[in-house]
UniProtKB/TrEMBL annotation, chain A:
SUPFAM superfamilies: V-type ATP synthase subunit C (SSF103486). V-ATPase is a heteromultimeric enzyme made up of two complexes: the ATP-hydrolytic V1 complex and the proton translocation V0 complex. This is V-type proton ATPase subunit. Keywords: Hydrogen ion transport, Ion transport, Transport. It holds the Pfam family vATP-synt_AC39. Belongs to the V-ATPase V0D/AC39 subunit family. The keyword Transport applies. InterPro entries: ATPase_csu/dsu_sf (IPR036079), ATPase_V0-cplx_csu/dsu (IPR002843), ATPase_V0-cplx_dsu (IPR016727), V-type_ATPase_csu/dsu (IPR035067), V-type_ATPase_csu/dsu_dom_3 (IPR044911). It comes from Hevea brasiliensis.
Amino acid sequence: MYGFEALTFNIHGGYLEAIVRGHRSGLFTAADYNNLCQCETLDDIKMHLSATEYGPYLQNEPSPLHTTTIVEKCTLKLVDEYKHMLCQATEPLSTFLEYCRYGHMIDNVVLIVTGTLHERDVQELLEKCHPLGMFDSIASLAVAQNMRELYRLVLVDTPLAPYFSECITSEDLDDMNIEIMRNTLYKAYLEDFNRFCQKLGGATAEIMSDLLAFEADRRAVNITINSIGTELTRDDRKKLYSNFGLLYPYGHEELAVCEDLDQVRGVMEKYPPYQSIFSRLSYGESQLLDKAFYEEEVKRLCLAFEQQFHYAVFFAYIRLREQEIRNLMWISECVAQNQKSRVHDSVVFIF
Amino acid sequence: MGEVRGGCCPPMDLFRSEAMQLVQLIIPIESAHVTVSYLGDLGFLQFKDLNSEKSPFQRTYAAQIKKCGDMARKLRFFKEQMDKAGVSPSSKPVTQTDIDMDGLDLKLGELEAELVEMNANNDKLQRTYNELIEYKLVLLKAGEFFSSALSSATAQQREIESHQVGEESLDTPLLADQEISTDSSKQVKLGFLTGLVPKEKSLAFERIIFRATRGNVFIRQSAIEVPVIDPISGEKIEKNVFVVFYSGERAKTKILKICEAFGANRYPFTEDLGKQNQIIDEVSGKVSELKTTIDAGLLHRSNLLQTIGDQFVQWNSLVRKEKSICHTLNMLSLDVTKKCLVAEGWSPVFASKQIQEALQRAAFDSSSQVGAIFQVLHTKESPPTYFRTNIFTTAFQEIVDAYGVARYQEANPGVYTIVTFPFLFAVMFGDWGHGICLLLTTLVFIIRENKLSGQKLGDITEMTFGGRYVILLMALFSIYTGLIYNEFFSVPFELFGHSAYACRDLSCRDATTDGLIKVGPTYPFGVDPVWHGTRSELPFLNSLKMKMSILLGVAQMNLGIILSFFNAVYFRNGLNIWFQFIPQMIFLNSLFGYLSLLIIVKWATGSQADLYHVMIYMFLSPTDELGENQLFAGQKMVQQVLLLLALVSVPWMLLPKPFLMKKQHEDRHLGQSYTPLQSTEESLQVEVNHDSHGHEEFEFSEVFVHQLIHTIEFVLGAVSNTASYLRLWALRHLIHPVGLIMCFILSLSFCSLAHSELSSVFYEKVLLLAWGFNNVIILIVGIIIFIFATIGVLLVMETLSAFLHALRLHWVEFQNKFYEGDGYRFYPFSFALLSDEDE
């Protein structure tokens, strides 16, 4: 439903929308990627980055650089921008921005729990966490032995608590459980986020429902592919799919029974938006699927900037910046390991 | 190119921008660095980027730039450390010791390593020190807690005992039994942990421990009053000392994990009271021991930083210079043989000798076998605009440049702006009292110029300081116009003798001019003070100032058009003279020049003619008789001729120029096909290099539309610009927004306020009103209000608004007559400019 949002949006959202659009124009262009891909050493990359918005974040790093430093500093920039926007935001934008980071929270929870399971040092794990998904008592996750404890001890204080209602079991944690937990949480999160966006209405609802539906569908496909050949039952698998999106409900039923990649492909090709993704892959190939999905996502995220007076730009910007950092990481890794021929394998051009 | 054109006029520094030339330098690679460095000292060459298609790290000197970046990083590190330690880099003149870049790099690296190691050691010591301090605090706080618990427990015990003694009854055995059972439960070993937890996390900490152990713990916390330094992060945090009692090993591991997760530091604690004291003593001893070690380390470190600080400024400028040299070198293209670098750039013609000298010096100093080659290239590219300004003219040139940088060698309005700008400002601002205030302010800036120019000023102060000479002239002119208007804080003074008028008898006190008769000679300078406060003051001054505004405006616009004539002559553009300058002069002067003439004639003859009427009916019915509005014989005839001329000049401006341009263009092309090709090889090469867009497309319709727009703009502009000059009067005599507000505040019933009006309002309504009460306090309050109103509203805000209007009159009304303003500024590669840019 379109209201008079164009009339009133700028009262609270105008400043931040301008900010986020300004940030967006700082994203790398194809020319930047071209230059980056030609770099010979990490110092070259640093030199190129010093002319971009990342410059101030990298300028005080001593010379033998590591990929992790670059990525860390670039992420720091995103986090700083996010925090600035969050500080300036009023309701309901602040809630919207909070929603944008729940995904990272889930990932961090899973990372810590898996890490403790494999007896890794908590401090080391904490360093690996995405800074956007940090919350106060994240370190004490290591104490928990099973889901119930996890919930009762720590997560009950976090915004993730409501999502846990479906996966509280007293079983001990193991890899499988954790993975199921991640997907259940993610499902609940996506559904909740979608509900929230629908409540906001207007262009936000319209664009976000498209973006979130794509996210849900991509997760559904990934769950299916990853669970092929595991002991996950069909019903359990189907339980992990989010209850919205283009594939819901009929696609889900078909995906639930898939036994190999080609069957997944068969299901997906019935949906025109995904047909193009799958038609580019040859049969039996799943490595390039991730990249294809990323490319499609980036395309949709960029489209979000075509409309004004809505919140999806914030979501899109954060996602695009993350993609850019992923690209940067890939390029840096390729440069660091002298694999320059593979540089283009995983870089997703944004513009 | 410049010297060929400049033949017709005497050289005028500021009127035409410096003649520029495109020069090519071929520098042997071994002397390139020295050469560029000398050129940077000279600061007369703007290098062109010949490698613009290459990305930064593909260029020749990328490695050096990287190295400079690294050195800059080290210097920033030193700076940060110095700031932390409170050592300021000494600003004393540095001893010019010659250090080469490699040596400096090495030295910086060593210093950095030393400093980093020192910091690491220091951090380690500091950490142990902080840990000990925390330990001591825990011991004290927990000891307090234990002792208080002990005393309360014994008190309880005593109470129970006294109870028992006092009341020996039947159920005493039962109670004893109970006591035994509780005793047995105490047999379970209770463990406890003590430590420190950050205050803001303490609640969550307690909650999580409670949840994790299902409530089977006992936690006591007490806050430490002063924030302690956390050993790990090294920051000052408020912390709580906690004691946790638990039972069982499982609970212990859980609590340990939680402690770790919350960053709570644990410390051992003994229950034995004697041992406690012993430990406290031990810890205190260690603390004082560590303190001396740390102090010694700090002293050493600050000594090191001091030595760095002594040379910091020199190093910093050295590194910055080196970096800029490398950036410049990167703009040069490498010759095919890789033996020399080719540079291209703009330089002023007068500097070519200096440049050549610098090149020779560089070749000599770098003991290179071949000197650099300096040659002038011919190009059709438009050179950059470069004015050599001094401390006085810079601000005025900035006013012009803010609108647009002059096209190469076009007439620079900046020359005239130096006088006309402050003058037009003063016409609006004129009050010699305010002028003197302004003069004093700006004199403060000018006298303390040397001191102030070095330091960082606030935003507004900086702006005022930059324009101090503009303000100086504005103040002087304001005093002059203020004397003419005869206003001193809106009070008239009889400075130049007595008023020419006096009352005929006593009945003329009612503020009119009716009863006045002329008794003496005309007041020699400015407005007769007798006008002030009379009922006819406004009509008289309005008429005077409006007419004056029009005279000034027409004069300035004529100047603008005449400048376009100078431009046309200078650029040998006959079309612009015959079909632009002449009809424009005719059009403007036949209408508004004539009006000016009428104004002067009216003043001179004292005629009662209505000039509005004359001007309007000159258009509406040129054949009518003028009647009483006739100012001189034959006026009707003159008007008809002028009108005719004005009408003719419009198509004159519009039509011939585009057609003639078309013809010229065709002729040029026709001629070109028959001229022999230019013979010398060099010029051919140059053609190829620099003449990529030699002959631009000629689109007749575009040119025609352009001319149409230009004509319409001028014709309408002549009217609207003249009207626009009325702001010179209006700013003094129209209702002013600020005036309105002040008006409201002072609850005046009517006001017609502008500068002079406002100031008279302040003077009369505040100062004189306050005077009237004959009360010291009211008088003081009145004076304070008067002073603040004068400074705030009149001096600051009115200055700003008059400034803005003067600016507009220059940018729009004056400069649109001739000024293209589409040039680009000359940015030479210069070390002197470099230091300004950063920071």
